[in-house]
Amino acid sequence: MHAGFKFGLFDRVCCCAPDPPDPPDPKETSAAQTGTNVSTAIANANLGNVNQVTPDGTLTYSQTGTYKQYDPYTGKTYDIPTYTATQTLSQSGQAVKDQSDEAKLNLSKLANSQSAFLNDFLAKPVDLSNDATEARLMDLGMKRLQPALDARRASQEADLINRGIRPGSDAYAQAQNLENQGENDAYNSLLLSGRGQAVQEALAQNSAPINNLTALLSGSQVSQPNFVNANMPTIPTTDNAGIINTNYQQKLNNWQAEANSTSDLFGGLFGLGANLIKYSDRRLKKNIRAIGTFANGLTKYVFEYLWSDAPQIGVMADEVRAHKPYAVKSINGFDIVDYGEALA
Questions:
Q1: Which of 337, 286, 283 minimizes the C-alpha distance to 314?
Q2: Residue of 12, 83, 3, 25 lying closest to 279 (CA atoms)
Q3: Whole-angstrom Cα distance, residue 12 to residue 195?
Q4: Domain residues for 183?
Q5: In angstroms, rounded to a whole number, what is the distance separating the alpha carbons of residues 260 and 17?
Q6: In sequence order, what DSSP letters do the residues of 76-109 get, joined into one string?
Q7: CA–CA–CA angle 170, 174, 176 (5° rounding)
Q8: What Cα–Cα distance (Å) separates residue 199 from each residue in 120, 184, 189, 203, 204?
Q9: pLDDT at 272
Q10: CB 176: neighbour CB atoms within 10 A?
């Protein structure tokens, strides 16, 4: 019988104590957070896609489609929009661009034709040997130094004749030898001091076609119109996962408070004495059947509580009150019986 009393009491405790809240589903929480993030990102993209109108043209944004983004963790799929930015020049700006593009196209064609010439030109390396440099210097000397030397020789010959020194004489021959040595010294000085200049001129002459081609190619680049993007505010992302977990924690705290309250209630029941205590109110029982009497004359019943189908054996609180009212107590409007007192 004692085992029956204990079972019935614990069964009642389980019925009265609130059930703990179900924890949030991690995947559902993640889906809620991801969905919020995606929506916020799309809203921020729409805020940033500001159409612009300027005197030189316009910049417009339009949604041109969507693509599916699959989340492997939650198994959900999100529609992500795709956008197209369209730049349109003003009427005069477009006319200028068309003319500029035509000119650049012509320069590109010219550069293309000149590049064929460079195939053979660059196949021949620049000759900077002594023979080549001296030949270049002698060529320069013949053009610039030799006229001055010829003028000086003519002046010397006239001076010799005026002094009575005739061609064929020893004095005339000696003077001519000195003049020849001076001319040789002048050419030697040119060769010694002009090598650097000759090398630079040779390299410049070799680089001129390359520089011309580079200039043509650089002029063929198409410039794009510039627009200033508006500085728009962004929408902060809502922490849905944090909100869900905070709500669960609040529910869990409430449940713990209710569970502690229920525990305190039944702790008070057990504190009434060392005897077993059971709910014995008829209103809490079903399938009540008399099966005999206890030693003190109280009727013995078998029954089930409303919240359980497990059979119990005990007394009815109203019958106990008629014989031993001190063995009956009331909790939340229902009668409980101290079986130690009732069956003494």
A1: 337
A2: 12
A3: 116
A4: 126-193
A5: 9
A6: -EEEEEEEEEEEEE-HHHHHHHHHHHHHHHHHHH
A7: 120
A8: 21, 22, 16, 6, 9
A9: 38
A10: 15
Asked if residue 335 and residue 258 are part of one domain, the reply reads yes
Report helix, strand or coil for 303: strand
Count the domains in the chain: 3
Q: What one-character-per-residue DSSP string does 249-266 give?
A: HHHHHHHHHHHHHHHHHH
| Residue 266, number of CB atoms within 10 A of its CB | 17
The pTM of the whole model exceeds 0.70: no
Burial class (CB in 10 A: 0-12, 13-18, 19+), 208: exposed
Residue closest to 266 by CA, chosen among 20, 15, 3: 15
User: 332 and 219 share a domain?
Assistant: no
User: Does residue 61 sit within a domain?
Assistant: no
Residue pair 321/328 in contact (Cβ under 8 Å)? The answer is yes
How far apart are the C-alpha atoms of 85 and 83, rounded to whole Å? Answer: 7
Is the sign of the CA dihedral 277, 283, 287, 290 positive or negative? positive
Q: Which parts of the chain have pLDDT scores under 70?
A: 1-19, 111, 114-134, 136-137, 141, 191-199, 201-203, 205-210, 212-235, 255-275
Please report how the helices 2-16 and 240-270 are oriented relative to each other, as an axis angle in degrees rounded to 10. Answer: 150
Are 159 and 252 found together in one domain?
no
Q: Which two tokens mark 69?
A: 């983004």
Other Cβ atoms within 10 Å of 112 Cβ, number: 13
Radius of gyration of the chain (CA): 57
Q: Rounded to an integer, what distance in angstroms lies between the CA atom of residue 41 and that of residue 331?
A: 57
